[in-house]
Amino acid sequence: MHSSRAEPAASQPCFNGCFPSPFLASERTHKPKVNNVTSSHDDFAAATSSSLHPHTQFTNPDSLPSLHDSYISFTKAFPHFSATSQVDQIRAQEYHHLNHSNACFDYTGYGLFSYALQQRPCPNASIVSSSSSSSFSHFTPDASFFDVSYRSVNLQSQVLYGGHQSELEARIRKRIMSFMNLSEAEYTLVFIANEVSAFKIVADSFQFQSNRRLLTVYDHSSEALDVMIESCKKQGVRVLSSEFSWPNLGIQRRKLKKMVMNKRDKRKGGLFVFPLHSRVTGAPYSYGWMSTAQENGWCVLLDVCALKPKEMDTLGMLLFKPDFMVCSFYKVFGENPSGVGCLFVKNSSVSALKDPCNATNIGIISLVPASKPEAEQVVIETETAHLQEGPSSTSEIEELSTFFDSSTDRNRLGTKNESSEIQCRGLDHADSVGLLLISNRTKYLVNWLVNALMSLKHPHHENKLSLIRVYGPKISSFRGPAVAFNIFDWKGEKIDPALVQKLADRKNICLNSSFLRNIRFYDKNEEERVCEVEGLGMSKKTRSHESGIYVVTATLGLLTNFEDIYRLWAFLSRFLDADFVEKEKWRYIALNQKTVEV
Question: Which CATH architecture has domain 37-107+434-592?
Fold first, then answer.
């Protein structure tokens, strides 16, 4: 089957896969044919390596191929990328803040809303602008689509009995359950203020009884996890952590299996907290760990915050059915001003929760319609004043009557108009694209980025010292959409991740930083060498004796396009210039007429 490709105009080449494709129509029935997993992986790695053809190493930022040429090589290496053009159309139509000037690599959670829904038409804007000396935009930004109301309730009571909910909350609850592919007969969705609150509530509510153990699988520092650990320690719970092998940061399988099975202790189980891949390094983990934990009496909390949209559709989720799941709608496309966390509790696991005993869990919330924006009130007042002055025509009287009738209806109906205006567009977009295309798109983009980062080498160095060191998995068809890395100057000294973040911000590139921990070295000499080169630091949020590595992180989302990752690559290549940091410092001083610490 051949896809017909529309030729982009010569002056405006298309970099985002703007080609129609027959693969969209056959997504549900298309099953990739894989005869040999190893050979398939090798083929993918070879294709990724060829995506920068003809050059594989770059020692000068000016030697990088152009965006146009890079995109051509990219699509030759990954011809099926054009099948994801629907994502680019969605981004262009409803996520204008992501186009051209901004490149976001700090995606967290799932998308509920789009940027387009943050601005709704101002009622009769033409009347306002023509009849008033004040200038009004045709769109007025909403401060929030919904507000949150904190509830004084225990988690077990909330799961068993629920409570009053607005029509808005009922609609969003139903939409999220459908999106996550969960049945209300099996799971109860509890809205939580944020991810940190969700982890704490589970720790506070879980009945550890004789199985007073918490086992976590994280290769990085997490505020939510640290809060959970602190709560468990106060209850006398023993905290265990998986370790990760240097340098690929894969799980130390034997050690984790030993902790999960715990043959020496007859008291089986406890609480097992597990993500399907690292949100920092992109390292993938097997579903099988959930199965092994369940077979040995553990209750499983699955952290799905790092999953790509629609990954809840996978077969593994249907087979293993964790007791708890946490996801986040906090930092979403369009920046919904409220933001929520979602805690899913398996109905058959409610017995694992403590009885209420008049105790409440802080962080459980209800979703309520947002109060009327001030901008709309200003419009009403302006219209009222204009009406008192007297309309100039019969048609204007009719338009004003329509406006006030609709305003009165909105105020009178209250919750039911508000709820009908709520659209979970981000979820709708992910549904319309589907799991296969989302997974393929992010797989192609993140692996091209990893390959491109590793191609940057310092000039005039006998060993061709790499500018960038990537931590965790390198090129892999199984890796997650996150990359952890550090930049090293021509002398081999690490550049502070916070500085890299700051300089990226000036270029409107949003990165993040994190702290890798629980790293296990096989060789003492290797550990000493890494400590010397990496400058292993101490995390303020972790135990005083724990060391780790501060890193820069880039996370790709559903709407990430090729131009985004090219811009990041081009920006990071500037560090090949030994004077880049100093030049940026003096450039900032010249523009702002003040000194700055970088």
Answer: Alpha-Beta Complex (3.90)
